[in-house]
Design brief:
The protein is α/β, with parallel strands linked by helices. It folds into 3 domains: 1-81, Archaeosine Trna-guanine Transglycosylase, Chain: A, domain 4 (Roll), CATH 2.30.130; 122-244, Ribose 5-phosphate Isomerase B, Chain: A; 252-477. It is 27% helix and 18% strand. The protein contains 12 helices and 21 strands. The strands form 5 sheets. A 7-stranded parallel β-sheet has the order 17-18-16-15-19-20-21, with helices on both faces. Strands 1-2-3-6 form a 4-stranded antiparallel β-sheet, with no helix packed on it. A 4-stranded parallel β-sheet has the order 11-10-12-13, sandwiched between helices. The longest helix has 20 residues, at 312-331.
């Protein structure tokens, strides 16, 4: 099969493989021939589309034709434009389908002293200010001998902030770093400060709240003669504490899994993202939690989401989040539809609506249990929506800070990065999975060749359980881990 019509109401099909001019389009039984070459992941018109008429994909308008398009023609940025503008007034018409409950499997995880589950047992060094980044990196390099027994790694997550920030940015940095300190995958944490930064020790303690003094230690570099020997002593104490934990059976109902896409292509919404969506339904049916973010990539696809909010309170939180992010764009003189990226377009994504409708497939069909803010923890079981941008590093960091034990990252173009939480890369197409086998953990491109979404989702669930039990992701094997903090204001 060379193409797919995603819903019966669509007036375009997506090329599953390149379609040559003159070749029959399988999506409509071969009754139509392509009048020009259609690249893989791109769209072909199934019926005539008049100028100004809506282009329908996923059963939703993804823009309108800027000229008359005959059946068989390539449909893309040269003849389609977005319908999006600014804020939208939403109304709540609940349509909620609860997944059938399933018995949760176990994974081999860690149980923290406060009862929380974890999938890694690592020591993290969290700098409160960019000035100590290199000190943190040297501490990691010099103290790798502490990684032994059940201690699985020693890492730091550097950033340029913590000073010369004011107002909301300063508060956001403080909140995000404190959330990382609390993350259960960190068996122990060293908070590393300089001593004269805006983000003072007192501020950080207030943000962090109650903490276990065996698990979290603090070092202010300006207050000691030799920060490396002082750091070594604290890291030895932290390693001794973290070393007491060992893997034990934990039900998958305690997992929190983040869901993200980046470097998307025209197959993202057909293969990898629906597979993640089906996985999300399967995990929530088992009592687990998933997190969907990338708010700008919900614009134009709200129809897939809003009526699934469990009640009006959650609906209004979702409405506030969506329009609040549009206001954020407008305040900065940006249009809300200035997306997709050049790589997205090359892969077949035409408008933001096209990208969004494919993006939100990761949310599956389960009810939306809650909407949470940037840096806030997941507290409600089920599918959660999280305030955050589309940027890969920023949103993956935000999902980690919300408590995601691991992140599922779908991609049609490929990307090597890893978040602080283990990051599983899921290819939308088999060519990428074969070409970048050092980046890709899971191939959903097999769906093009006949595997069902349910079969792929079951494979993915099994991989998640393996990964939660200690199997390293490709990014972990290479030591690829980093953070990026959401910034809005001025730098002093």
């Amino acid at each position: 099969m060379n193409s797919i019509r995603i819903t019966e109401s669509d007036n375009v099909a997506v090329a599953l493989h390149p379609i040559a001019a003159g070749e029959a389009v399988d999506a409509v039984g071969g009754a139509l021939k392509a009048s020009e070459d259609i690249p893989q992941g791109h769209k072909v018109a199934l019926t005539p589309i008049e100028e100004g008429e809506a282009v329908i994909k996923y059963g939703f308008p993804i823009g309108h034709a800027t000229e008359s398009i005959t059946a068989g023609r390539w449909v893309h940025t040269h003849n389609v434009k977005t319908n999006l503008s600014g804020e939208v007034e939403y109304s709540y018409h609940p349509c909620i389908t609860w997944p059938e409950k399933a018995e949760p499997e176990n994974f081999m995880g860690f149980r923290r002293d406060d009862g929380r589950a974890a999938i890694r047992n690592e020591i993290w060094i969290i700098p409160t200010v960019g000035c100590v980044n290199d000190i943190a990196k040297k501490m990691v390099a010099d103290n790798q001998d502490l990684v032994k027994g059940s201690v699985e790694g020693l890492y730091t997550f550097t950033h340029p902030f913590g000073c010369s920030q004011t107002g909301a940015d300063h508060a956001q940095t403080r909140k995000l770093l404190a959330a990382l300190v609390r993350h259960p995958n960190a068996g122990a944490v060293l908070v590393l400060s300089l001593g004269c930064e805006n983000l003072t020790h007192e501020q950080f303690l207030k943000e962090l709240g109650p903490y276990d003094e065996q698990r979290v230690k603090f070092l202010t570099c300006q207050e000691v003669e030799d920060e490396f020997s002082a750091g070594r002593k604290l890291l030895e104490e932290l390693a001794a504490y973290a070393g007491k934990f060992s893997r034990e059976p934990v039900p998958v109902s305690e997992l929190v899994v983040g869901m993200k896409c980046g470097g998307s292509d025209g197959l993202s919404g057909i293969t990898a993202n629906p597979t993640v969506g089906r996985f999300s339904d399967m995990l929530t049916a088992r009592g687990g939690s998933t997190v969907l973010t990338e708010v700008p990539e919900m614009f134009g696809a709200e129809g897939f989401l809003m009526d699934r909010c469990v009640n009006e309170e959650v609906f209004h939180k979702a409405e506030k989040m969506l329009n609040g992010f549009k206001d954020y764009f407008i305040r900065h003189g940006e249009v809300v539809y200035d997306n997709p990226s050049p790589g997205n377009k090359q892969g077949g994504i035409t408008t933001l609506e096209d990208k969004s409708c494919g993006c939100v497939q990761k949310g599956g069909t389960a009810p939306i249990a809650d909407v949470i803010g940037y840096g806030d923890p997941v507290v409600t079981k089920g599918l959660n929506m999280l305030y955050g941008p589309g940027n890969d590093l920023v949103s993956a960091t935000a999902m980690t800070a919300s408590g995601a034990h691991l992140i599922l990252f779908t991609t049609g173009r490929g990307t090597p990065f890893g978040a602080p939480a283990p990051t599983l890369k899921i290819a939308t197409n088999s060519q990428l999975a074969q070409k970048k086998s050092g980046w890709i953990d899971f191939n959903a491109g097999s769906i093009v060749d006949g595997e069902t979404i349910q079969e792929a989702a079951q494979r993915l669930l099994e991989l998640v359980i393996e990964t939660a039990g200690g199997k390293k992701t490709k990014a972990e094997e290479r030591g690829f881990r980093e953070i990026s903090i959401f910034k809005d204001g001025v730098v002093l």
